[in-house]
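for the writeup, i need someone to sanity check this before i put it in the appendix. the sequnce is what the collaborator sent (i think, or maybe the updated version? ugh). structure was predicted straight from it, no edits. if anything looks off just tell me and ill rerun, i have time this weekend
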Amino acid sequence: MFAPPASVRLRDITTELLVPTLALSLHDAAPRVVEFFERVLGPRPERIGRLTTLVGQLLMPPRERDELGAEITDPDLYELTPFEAFPEDVCAAADAVLETVGSLPVRLSELLGVALEDSPATAHLVALLALRAFSPAVESHLRAREESPLLVAWSDGMMLPAALGRGGEAFGRVSGRPRGVEGPAAIETLGFYGDDLLLARLDVAAAAYLAETDAA
């Protein structure tokens, strides 16, 4: 009856608890935070093991474990048929045409004319190999320490003859017909567009050695 009335004012969590706690050091704030959460979360009953359950677990035989794991089943494999864009005879004929290129520059139009005597597909492959030589892998050639000369191609701005086609820079499009199509019609259907590149074989290893010698 004579007791003072109880205070029912709620605490401001942010301004009265969180902000002052953040201003403290970790050593001073840790026990206060732990005590706060222990009071807020309420009592936690201790886990007491049952003797009957404990005895049953102790008397249970150990589980058998397979160290190698589950059995692996062999997958169903089937033989893949490799896709060849050009037959072996076409590749051999194109290599034979490019083998004629030496240290002196040769026009691509001359090589295409020789390749067309074999087949349009051979000329198509020669044109693609010329495109690869337009940006040769010089660094890979040197790292592999290959001693064979490297086929390189460059443009001096001369266009391909009208019989082979007209177009822009360094082969905007290269197309061809299957092997066996011959004659003037085959030359028109190939449609080589771009510059009449110059091709030559460069001894990259010797050039690199001379450059290192001059630098030393």
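The longest helix spans residues 26-41. The beta strands are 106-107, 150-154, 198-202.
thx in advance!!
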